[in-house]
Structures are given as C-alpha cells and as structure tokens.
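new request in #modeling-help
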Amino acid sequence: MLQSPPAVPGMREEEIDTPALVIDLDAFEYNLDHMAALLAPTGVKLRAHAKTHKSPVIAKLQMARGAVGQCVQKVSEAEVLAWGGIPDILVSNQIVGASKLARLCALSSITKAAVCVDDALQVDWVERAAADSGRRMTVLVEIDVGAARCGVPPGPAAVDLAKKIAASKHLIFGGLQAYQGSAQHKRTVSERQTLIGNAVDAARRTVEQLRQQGLDCPIVGGAGTGTFQIESVSGIYTEMQCGSYVFMDADYARNLDEAGKPISTFRHALFVLATVMSAPHAGLAVLDAGHKAVSTDSGMPTLWGKPDIRYVSASDEHGKLDVGSETTMPKLGEKLRLVPGHCDPTVDRHDWYVGVRGGRVESLWPVAARGGMA
Amino acid sequence: MLQSPPAVPGMREEEIDTPALVIDLDAFEYNLDHMAALLAPTGVKLRAHAKTHKSPVIAKLQMARGAVGQCVQKVSEAEVLAWGGIPDILVSNQIVGASKLARLCALSSITKAAVCVDDALQVDWVERAAADSGRRMTVLVEIDVGAARCGVPPGPAAVDLAKKIAASKHLIFGGLQAYQGSAQHKRTVSERQTLIGNAVDAARRTVEQLRQQGLDCPIVGGAGTGTFQIESVSGIYTEMQCGSYVFMDADYARNLDEAGKPISTFRHALFVLATVMSAPHAGLAVLDAGHKAVSTDSGMPTLWGKPDIRYVSASDEHGKLDVGSETTMPKLGEKLRLVPGHCDPTVDRHDWYVGVRGGRVESLWPVAARGGMA
C-alpha cells in the first residue's frame, strides 16, 4: 500500500512523522551542481542512474543541469520515468521475459529507450519484441570489464554480439555498456585506478575491434560515483552513469581520496529521520527505524552530527544505539538523523522524500518507482 | 507506487513475472494448522505477529484456526488490520509521538487495541491521547527479559509502571510484554532453553509482585517461532506472538532440534521467484533479484531444491549464483525459487503475494501494510 506522506510543507523538521526519508535540499542541490561542474571540462555526458532515486522529479533536476538522459535497471523504473516525461532512458541491464520486453518496446512511443544484452538469445528476444511492437530498438552490448557479474568478455565475443544486433531488422547497435561495479567501493585511489584502468583498456580494445568491423559505438557507458573521475578522462567512455552522488551514503563516505582522507567530493544529502522510542537505561536508546526503514547490507547507519553515538544493531523495526558516557543521552521522543549505510536500497523502502531546508519541510516528492523490480 | 500484480490466477508458476513473492499454499496451510495443533494442548493462546505477513487476509486465516488476535509493531500496521476487520490488535511495541497515538486511539472504535510502554512519560502520553479520543486504552508494560532492547527491568520498576497505568483515568493495565528476541535464533535447544528459562523466571517474579499489589495480568505475552514450545508450557505466559512460523526462512531453518538436526516443525512456504537474466559463462548465472527483492541481513537466500547452486552475493538488482560443476547450468530465462534469509523484511519489499498450489497460481493477496513503518 502507498503510505501517506510523513510531513506537510512548512512544518519544522522535528514535526516530521518517523521513520522518514529526508533530503537536505541544500546539500542535494550542491551535489547536482557539482557533478555538472566536474563533468563539464571533460566533454563526457552524464546519464544519471535512476536506480538510486526512482524519481522523475529528481531526474528532471539532473537533466536541467545537462544530463542527457537516465539509466534504469528495470522496465518498471523505465515506465515511471517515461510516464513522468523523461525523453531518453537506457536500461543498463539485461531484460529477460516476453512481457517485460513488450512493455519496454511500448515505451518507445513516448521516450527514446535502449537496453543491454550479453547473450545472442537475448538479441533474438529483443528483435521479436521490437518487431511485434513495430518499432526499432537500440541495443547495447554489455561487456564484463572486471566485475564478473553480467556481460560478455571484451573483444571478439562482444563484436559477434554487436554484429548480430546490427544485422537484426528491428534493432540498432547502440554501443557498449562497460560498468565496473566492484571498483566503486575500493577504498584507495590506487585500487580504483588499477581496476578502472583495466576496464578502460578492455573497453578501448573492444571499441577498436568494432570499428574494424565498421561498427561505431555512439555510447560507451559506465562509471559510478566512486570512479567517474577516472573514466571521464579516459577518452573512451562517453557517458557517466553515476547515481549515488545525489545523496551519498555511509559506505561511499569510507572511500579515501589521494591524501588518504575520506572523500569530500559530494555532501551527505539523504537521511532517515528516526525517533527515540525507548531509552530504558543510561547508555542505551532505541530508535523506531530498523531493517525495514534503513538498509544495513553495506554496514550500519551512522548518526549525523553525533560521533559519540553508534547504531550498533538493527532488528526489523528497531535500531539500538550505544551512547557514549561523555555524551548527553538522547531523550525519549527526540528525533535523530541517520546516514544510511547504502542509499539505493534505503530509498526503495520508502514512499516519500521529505525535502528540508533551513529546518523546514519544503517539498514532498514520491519515490515514484519504489518497489519497481520487474 | 503500488506495483501491479506479477501474476493472474490460473497461470503456471513459470509464467509469473519476476521477482515475485510466492507462497506455497499447501506448506503455508500446513504451518497454520500445525501451530494450532501444537498450542491446543497447552491452553495458551496464539496472538500471531502480523509484522511478518502484513496482511489482513493471512490474519483472518490465523484467527479462523483459533488465534485470539494479532500483534503489530507499528500503528500503520494496526490500521491496515483494523480496516480489514481484525477485532483484537496488540501493538507489541512502544509508540512515541502524539499523531501516532491519536491514530491508534481512533482505531478503538472499530477494534480492541492495546499498546506497550516502558517509561512513565509514555504512560502520560497514552493517557493524554486516550483522554482526547474519549476512550480507554489498554496498556501493557514491556519488561526486558534478556534481549537488552526495549523494556523496563522485571520486578519493582515494572510494578511502578503498572501502578501508574492502573491509576490513569483513561488507561487499563493489560499485563506484561515479555519477548526474548535474542533467543529466537540461538541454534541449540539448550541455549534457547537457558535464555527462555531466565525470561520465564523474570516474568513469573514480576507477575507475582504485581499480584501482591492487587494487579492482575490478563496478558503475559511473548515468544517467537524459535522458542514458543518453551514459553507455551511455562505456566506463566498466556499468549504466543509467533510470526515467522507461517512462512519460515533460511535463518530459522538453521536452528537445531534436540537431536542436533535442523528443525522441521514447520515447512518452508515463502519464496522469491527469480529469473536467470544472464549466464555469461559456465559456473556463473545471475538472477534478477538482489537487495531490493530479498533480504540479506540474516544471510544470503538459498536455492530451493538446488543444493549445488549457491547465491553467493547480492547487489541492488542482481543475485550472483555459483553453480557447481556437477550441476546442470540454469538456462537463461529459467525461473528459480529462492528461500529468503529472513522472511519479515523480504515480505516488506513486495506489494503482492502470489499463492501457488500444484504449479498453478491460485491467489493474489496484497501485502497490505507494506511500507507501514510509522
């Protein structure tokens, strides 16, 4: 069931009902602007990843700052963006299943839609769906540039698949999907540079082999918030697919910069506001936000502005806080901001964003594609 | 946004769109019946926990087999059950916040609602909300019987709180909430017996001290799927609050019985059906179900009926499978059943239950209180 909004514009942050997904609008807008400023001199484009935010509102704010389109992982996400008016959407993922492909092709009448493949069978399936819909679909080849998840090997296998796409009546070869997911959270710059260096080499080699076969790559897409500053100056990638930069999270904040300090490229903009619902004795307080409100798959959330309080464990609806003896115990009913360990799955547990500026609620935006996993 | 149902009654399981939350209806009904049969000779009542299923449909099936009511953790869950016709609902948790308490008290016109407290301030807050609503609310005292989460210490502190409730004009003292959450997943019977033995002692001592003050405990509630066979014969607990027994999960399946074998009291009834969306090389297959479709906080999901395939890692929308060399590689497009590591948060990520029997879809039930965390 869609939940009702936890706030009304104009109310103070302390009045927001909890648990609530709160955006610090100043930090969020800083992130949007800063990404645009960082990419401008490189000439590469931003195709921001909507898997993070699941919101046509946020997609439009990204596009107003120059993003050329959006990435999604799922057809249901593509639908929500297309219905919300986003004109250019890449499903940066394989889509398997006739009904999903029919839905994706149907979107082509209202948006420019593209999809990835990593198997000849998928090419046949997309071709059939495109033919049935009477439209031509743009298809990219996903290559495995080191993450060992989806993707054909770089080089000849990718060329074969691209040729098959180009030879399919209702398909257009759109380029390469070359995302190195496992590099995003490597802590040191040198680790990230090594892994992305390999990805760049693999992508370059494949682009050259495609060119030898007369196949151009309009898109070479990849990169995430952890590594885009490497791919963006590679001379081979054309589109950056960063998602988390709009919000950041506790896990990305553990990445280190060249000086070995936590990265500070972007600001924390996403919080789960929670209430102290029990404070049974000194040192222990319990929040009303557990697994169902905040993701713990990349570590526990941290307390914003309260370094002496640790979120030590989550149960389904509770979060236990360990309160240092030097710190004032949070009071029963007090509201605290959590920095989620991992932003994407945290967002997906909520129906509403509550935008806050200067301590007041300014906006309510639906997490419009929440639960969209088909 | 509420997602559309992933299936239509009558279709074959292989036709269900994925990822989908699937109930094996035979196993599920076995679990409902078996719990009723296990508790019948003990004389204790079942107040099943709706935090697991979030569904008035399932609540009614439990009550048709003798459950006296339902537990919930959140007011939003209580609302969905009350609106769905459930006549007796205990919020087995503290509720902090005036608007939440007003909503809870408002439900008293259509259901019998009760709530827990572990602080004198909460008693004042519930009293004020009850007075404002013009109704009397039943309030239980939560005691900490060993889980070190919410709850006042057993004994005098609990008695003081109960006296304050009984002395409040619009409140009725309803008894004790005495749930030992940290015992539920202790692997051996002896560990669970030790912890629940302590909980029973603490509850008994508190009940006796209350009686000396003239305060009866109509409800002494607690227990979960891992331990109810201990509390139910304690002579002190009156209501069992088991939730997970309806579905089970991979984590509960790691609990051991007296013979040191995995417990077999209940059957696995809940699955996430997922599709092989990529199979880039021998030994590796990728499912379309990651963190957003299946909880990993209590370990990775397991593959139903496929012991030689391991779900080795989840990303947001992908699950990587390691396929043993002795096993036939799953085909692209093949659908596989995952046993979630943890049932409650997995359920909360989906909008629909797809009930399956004999390979066919028989029912579609909404996860009506999905996302209800306020």
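bot summary: Chain B has two domains: 13-21+264-366, 26-254.
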